[in-house]
Specification:
Oligomer: single chain
Distance between the termini: 43 Å
Helix content: 25-40%
Bound molecules: flavin-adenine dinucleotide
Number of strands: 20
Strand content: 25-35%
């Protein structure tokens, strides 16, 4: 049994934990990361790879509720709630509905914009120029809709873009056919968001963060944190599956599993997992020139170095239920509605646990009454975009430096008001 002391200990080696680890390390701190799965073993492994400085719309939106009954009728549709899990999810779902009021959506969009607009700057700071260019494509992103009817959330999305001066160009059927030869005839409307980017490999970009951290003297230990115990005089003891590790500063960046670690300390946060799926086509018959987001069916098609990644949908079923792999395979059918001639070849199906708050904002920063403890999770659909700026914000808060952006909207205390 190991007994060890660490100046700074981070639980979780996803994009959020490793971004925080690197920024803290560059501030001169000795940092250790714990994760039984190693870098990119969680949601950071297989997401759609969008790095979106120009995405500032939360998930819960006015008008969204009108879509929900239709979605729920289709067990393989964009949103599914497992009936046996519904009673546990209800309190979170109620908060999600409240977060969809226009005044709250606009406030959340301000905080989301403040964090996301720095994502490419932070990725470049973390990776350096050469790896940045190797792993990131600043090609923009296209949203598409099936049919001509405006969706109930479109007007608010436009209001949010106008509010933040986000550039986007409407596309008609001819534009879409020129940009994406072979796209289906019923895809007649699109929107090009040129300021967004994507990574060619979510897994490689996050494991690269881990390698950079190790090369600079950081340690990543394959252990699971089992219990966090406050120490007399400050700091924490983390009981892992193999050791007792004490830390002056403890960062919980355990993604969707974070709430479980915090509950025994009396810290209760509304964190639910929105499980999402991907189908990775390793030898697709075509690759679009840039990522496409189907707004009608809530999925992304992203060209990646391993092939074509078709990712998305939301399943509310908790952390313990087994995956429903049909939700991944149906994504291939959805992609064929965009590109009827698409041949899939070999396909890997995957499920990841998005760590989601009702207002789509992460929970970042210290916790009142718990000196030495810092929270860094809850990035939901946007962790690849919000993760690096969150790491920088947290490192600045820990160092007592000027945070650069107002940290208040991300504090855990917002849920106790
Ligand atoms: C289908 C899908 C598509 C997505 N697309 C995008 C996208 O295009 N763009 C975007 O920005 N975001 C996207 N996301 C969201 C993004 O993947 C997540 O927000 C992000 O990966 C969360 O990062 P994280 O570090 O908080 O969590 P994770 O990556 O899940 O990492 C948490 C880590 O904590 C570890 N851990 C858990 N419990 C313990 C413990 N007790 N002890 C030690 N370690 C522990 C886990 O092993 C895990 O490695 C998508 C997600 C999904 C599922």
């Amino acid at each position: 049994m190991t007994i060890a002391h660490h100046p700074a200990l981070i639980i979780g080696a996803g994009v959020v934990g490793l971004s925080t680890a690197l920024y803290l390390q560059r501030d001169g701190m000795q940092v250790t990361v714990l994760d039984p799965l190693g870098p990119a073993g969680g949601a950071s492994f297989g997401n759609a790879g969008m790095l979106s400085p120009d995405t500032a719309a939360p998930i819960a939106m006015p008008g969204m509720l009108r879509k929900v009954p239709g979605w729920l009728r289709d067990p393989l549709g964009p949103l599914a709630v497992r009936p046996s899990y519904l009673p546990r999810a209800l309190p979170w779902l109620r908060q999600w509905v409240k977060a969809g009021r226009l005044d709250r959506v606009l406030a959340a969009s301000d905080a989301m914009r403040a964090l996301h607009r720095e994502t490419l700057v932070c990725w470049r700071e973390l990776l350096g120029d050469s790896l940045y260019h190797n792993l990131i494509r600043p090609s923009g992103q296209v949203h598409v809709w099936e049919g001509d009817d405006a969706s109930p959330t479109e007007a608010v999305e436009q209001q949010i873009r106008d509010r933040h001066g986000i550039q986007a160009t409407p596309l008609g059927a001819d534009d879409l056919r020129q940009m994406f030869p072979g796209i289906a005839r019923d895809i007649r409307r699109g929107l090009h968001v040129p300021g967004n980017a994507h990574t060619v490999s979510p897994q490689r970009i996050v494991t690269t963060l881990g390698e950079l951290f190790r090369q600079a003297g950081g340690t990543i230990i394959a252990e699971r944190a089992m219990k966090l115990i406050p120490r007399d005089g400050g700091g924490y003891t983390v009981m892992t599956n193999r050791a007792n590790r004490t830390a002056d500063r403890l960062v919980v960046a355990a993604g969707a599993w974070s709430a479980r670690l915090l509950a025994p300390l009396g810290i209760h946060v509304p964190l639910e997992t929105e499980r999402g799926y991907h189908a990775m086509l390793f030898a697709p018959s075509m690759q679009p020139a840039m990522p496409i987001s189907s707004k009608s069916r809530a999925f992304f098609v992203t060209p990646m170095e391993d092939g074509l990644c078709i990712a998305g949908t939301v399943e509310i079923a908790g952390l313990d239920a087994p995956p429903d792999e049909r939700r991944a395979t149906v994504l291939v059918d959805h992609a064929r509605r965009l590109f009827p001639a698409l041949e899939a070849g070999e396909v890997r199906t995957w499920m990841g646990f998005r760590p989601s708050t009702p207002d789509s904002l992460p929970i970042l920063g210290p916790v009142a009454g718990h000196p030495g403890l810092y929270l860094a999770f809850g990035h939901g659909h946007f962790g690849m975009s919000g993760g690096p700026p969150s790491g920088r914000l947290l490192a600045r808060l820990i160092a007592g430096a000027a945070p650069g952006i107002d940290p208040a909207p991300y504090g855990a205390q917002r849920f106790s008001r």
